[in-house]
Amino acid sequence: MSHNKLCLFDRLLRRGLISGIYPESGECRDKLRQLLANQYPVTVYTGFDATSNSLHVGNLATIISSLYFHGHGHQVICVVGDATARVGDPSGHTRDRKSIDKSVISNNSDSIERTLRNLFDNYRTCFLVGHQQATNQHVELKPPIIVRNSEWYNEMNLIDFVDGVFRDVRVGGLLHKKSIQERLKTREGMNMAEFSYQIFQAFDWLELRKRHDCLIQIGGNDQQGNIYTGHDLIKKRLGKSDSIGLLAPLITNAKGKKLGKTTEGAKADTWLNPKQTVPYDLYQFFHRTPDNDVEKFLKIFSFYEESYIDELIKTRLRDKSDIWYCQRKLAEHACLLIHGQEGLSEAKRITECLFPTNKNKS
Asked: Catalyses which reaction (predicted)?
């Protein structure tokens, strides 16, 4: 595992966990490096709408970046979007989202919160503690804050929200977003709820900035428009222009399609909730990674040192005596993070029973 606070941003870039920032400039990147090199922790957040009862592999790049910040002693906030799940994010959708019942959203939120807590717990116990003992380094960890955004929306009056927030958002900026432009070109168009989604996500960041001085938001590349709107809203409302968005790459399958809730095949083997995808199926999903993607996925989904990954690819990827060695290392790390030691042991036991000729040892 790599834990050098001075180089955190560059390490995330090299590992492919971050593909860009907003605002994008050399000056902004240098300011971010300086910020993360200081002794003082910063607050970073990422959000997940409760439109499903499970997160998926497509969310992992964002989550793992958050884990790195957590491991370096920074304050991580995970926002479960139970309120914004009712609004509907238009990103990646060609038609209107269906309205979701409040009770379903509440159950989804409970499930997502459990998954997030398990990921942070597994990261600390299965990866971070051993690294700190091996390197004789100790970082004071701040417990992650997991909050639902209904916490602030339930306190608000509609007219006050429109008067106090909508006035600081320009329609031209909203129309500039690619997903908005694509939807408006369709015959069906877009409903007002989904069109206003950017404003709600922007307000989430504004609220976190006021409550926790949250400087950084991590989101997928498809959220760049929402991050821009949030950055602009904070600047207008608080007079602060130092907010930074980190853009995580979109994880794609072998066909180049985004891995997510609406991707064909995702239902079978890419959910993080064990009730949706059992540990064995998730293990096999990573075990089936094509050779051309193994190095990329090892850097994104594992906590192996980069030098160890380079050595693996160089010496073991095409080792005919054990052709799945690198994939197995990837599957073990990913399954251990998501399902813990018990889940990994179960997945390896089933794999050994079904494929006894496979080498299923570390």
From this structure: tRNA(Tyr) + L-tyrosine + ATP = L-tyrosyl-tRNA(Tyr) + AMP + diphosphate + H(+)
Query: Beta 216-220 vs 43-49: how paired, if at all?
Result: parallel
Residue 62 and residue 273: Cα distance in Å, rounded?
Answer: 17
Please list the residue range(s) of the chain that carry CATH number 1.10.240.10.
279-354
Helix axes 325-354, 291-301, angle to 10 degrees: 90
User: Distance (Å, rounded) from C-alpha 175 to C-alpha 173?
Assistant: 5
List phi, psi (to 5°) of 46: -140, 155
Give the strands of the sheet with 216-220, arranged side by side.
20-22, 244-248, 216-220, 43-49, 75-81, 145-148
Distance CA 272, CA 99 (A): 24
CATH superfamily, domain 279-354, is Tyrosyl-Transfer RNA Synthetase (1.10.240.10)
Question: What tokens appear for 301 in the block?
Answer: 């989904």
Neighbouring CB atoms inside 10 A of 194's CB total 19
d(C-alpha 146, C-alpha 144), whole Å: 6
222 within 8 A of 252, measured Cβ to Cβ:
no
pTM for this structure?
0.90
Q: What is the pLDDT of residues 320-353, one digit of tens each?
A: 788 899 999 999 999 999 999 999 999 999 999 9
Q: DSSP string spanning 34-92?
A: HHHHSSS--EEEEEEE-SSSS-BGGGHHHHHHHHHHHHTT-EEEEEEETTHHHH---TT
Q: 10 Å Cβ neighbour count for 24?
A: 11
357 burial via Cβ count (<10 Å: 0-12, 13-18, 19+)? exposed
Counting Cα atoms < 13 Å in the Cβ hemisphere of 158 gives 0
Q: Are 92 and 262 in contact (CB under 8 A)?
A: yes
Instruction: Identify the CATH class of 8-248.
Output: alpha beta
Task: Taking the CA atoms of 97, 98, 100 and 104 in sequence, report the sign of the dihedral they define.
Answer: negative
Assigned token pair, 171: 């329609």
Q: What is the pLDDT of residues 156-204, one digit of tens each?
A: 999 999 998 999 998 888 888 777 888 888 888 888 988 899 999 999 9
